[in-house]
Amino acid sequence: MPGVLKFPSEMKILRKESFNNWYKIRTYFFATMLTSLPVQIFFSIVYSTIVFTLTSQPLEYDRFMMFLAVLVLTTIVADGYGLFLGTFLNQINGTFIGAITTCYMLVFCGFLIMFSHMSELMKAFSYLSTLRYGLEALVLAMYDNGRTNMVCPEEELYCHYVKASTILKDLGMTPQNYIFNVVMLAVQFIAIKVIGFWSLKRKLRSN
Q1: Measured in whole angstroms, how far is the alpha carbon of residue 90 from the centre of its chain?
Q2: H helices of 1-89, where?
Q3: Interval 102-133: pLDDT, tens
Q4: CA atoms of 57 and 38, how far apart (whole Å)
Q5: Which candidate, 181, 173, 177, places its Cα nearest to that of 70?
Q6: Which residues contact 109 (CB under 8 A, 6 or more apart)?
Q7: Do residues 72 and 40 make contact, with C-beta atoms less than 8 angstroms apart?
Q8: How far is 17 from 23, CA to CA, in rounded Å?
Q9: What count of other Cβ atoms lies within 10 Å of the Cβ of residue 159?
Q10: 23, 74, 171, 198: which has the highest count of C-beta atoms within 10 A?
Q11: Domain ranges of the chain
Q12: How many other CB atoms sit within 10 Å of the CB of residue 161?
């Protein structure tokens, strides 16, 4: 949401100052991107720490860093998408379109409808969702790569999800697919930033 609102609220000032050659557009764009990065990393670390503690995940450094990396990537991709919408939409339309596309991403990310329950057509559409790569990478970070069996309470006669492989199978997620998801998030991050910069530059020049 902050990304959607940022550029429209600063467009008049940005147009005036860039026209007077106070600074270049790319300087402003990269400064905007870099100043938000520490905040995104900080809150991702806080969230990861809380989640790992409350859900009794194994306290393994590699697993934690894999989990954290996905959160940071997903956050900066979402921020980049908001900035992109803000380069050519006003605050009202940007908020509306952003909410609609977020709903689409949630529906096809494998959370509301598991991949094992999707038709082939729906699976194809899921590859257009950024959250699909983020969710699968998060699940694989926790339940793939030699994850030990979950604890089954002694009072329970049967625990279906003792093995991590059972969880991945029921969710319809592909083991050893973590790197692919991270690469796709990184590609989307680069693409959305490049497109956002081009869109901002085009709008300022057209006015």
Answers
A1: 23
A2: 2-19, 25-54, 61-88
A3: 888 888 888 888 888 888 888 888 888 899 99
A4: 25
A5: 181
A6: 126, 129, 131, 132, 134, 135
A7: yes
A8: 7
A9: 13
A10: 74
A11: 2-206
A12: 13
* Full-model pTM: 0.85
3-state secondary structure of 172: coil
* CA distance linking residue 66 with residue 182, whole number of Å: 9
The CA dihedral of 65, 70, 76, 77, to the nearest 10 degrees, is 160
How far, rounded to the nearest angstrom, does the alpha carbon of residue 175 sit from its chain's CA centroid? 20
- Least Cα distance to 92 among 196, 3, 4, 6 occurs for 4
pLDDT of residue 207: 60
The label of the residue with tokens 């026209």 reads 19
Decide if 82 contacts 97 (C-beta within 8 A).
Answer: no
Per-residue burial over 100-109, b if 16 or more Cβ lie within 10 Å, else e, is: eebeebbbbb
Both structure tokens of 89: 């939409």
Question: How far apart are alpha carbons 193 and 76 in whole angstroms?
Answer: 10
Please tell me the distance from the alpha carbon of residue 70 to that of residue 136, in angstroms, as a whole number: 10
Query: SS3 of 183, please?
Result: helix
Q: At what angle do helices 2-19 and 25-54 cross, to 10 degrees?
A: 160
Q: How many residues does the chain have?
A: 207
- What are the tokens at 181? 């998801």
CB distance 116 to 168 below 8 Å: no
Residue type at 49 in one-letter notation: T
